[in-house]
């Protein structure tokens, strides 16, 4: 669910979990430690995506499901693999 418009559903990649420190892309702070109860999400098209780089950490309460497949358009049908782009890995994680 969009943190700016509860009527809108958005699909984004989870980049960082609570306690992680992430280098942002155009957010007001260059580095952010994701607060307790939040995640950092990003779209696949940096610079053209309405994501945490625009609105900051997202409350876990807005997370409703996990995307597992691409169904549309049919030419892109595929199962999604859990992966984090190497350049987007957090610098530090409280889970370590």
What does this structure look like?
Heterodimer of 2 subunits, IMMPL1 and IMMPL2. Belongs to the peptidase S26 family. IMP2 subfamily. GO terms for molecular function: serine-type endopeptidase activity. It is found in: Mitochondrion inner membrane. It comes from Gopherus evgoodei (Goodes thornscrub tortoise). The model has no long low-confidence stretch (mean pLDDT 86). It contains one helix and seven strands; from the N terminus they run ββββαβββ. The longest helix is centred in the middle third of the chain and has 4 residues. The N and C termini lie far apart (29 Å). The strands form three sheets. Strands 1-4-5 form a three-stranded antiparallel sheet. It has a two-stranded antiparallel sheet with strand order 2-3. It has a two-stranded antiparallel ribbon with strand order 6-7. It is globular and about 40 Å long. It is mainly β and 96 residues long.
Which helices and strands occur, and which strands form pairs?
Layout: E1 13-16, E2 21-23, E3 31-33, E4 38-42, H1 52-55, E5 58-59, E6 69-70, E7 78-79
Antiparallel strand pairs: 1-4, 2-3, 4-5, 6-7
- What is the C-alpha radius of gyration, as a whole number of Å? 14 Å
Give, in order, the helices and strands.
EEEEHEEE
Give a count of the beta strands, DSSP E runs of length 2 or more. Answer: 7
The N- to C-terminal Cα distance equals: 29 Å
Sequence of strands across the biggest β-sheet: 1-4-5
Shape: globular
- What portion of residues belong to β-strands? 15-25%
- Specify the biggest β-sheet: 3 strands, antiparallel
- SS summary, helix count: 1
Low-confidence stretches: none
**How confident overall, as mean pLDDT?**
86
Class based on secondary structure composition and strand pairing: mainly beta
Domain Peptidase S26: 28-72
GO biological process, one term: protein processing involved in protein targeting to mitochondrion
Membrane topology: Single-pass membrane protein
Pfam families: Peptidase_S26
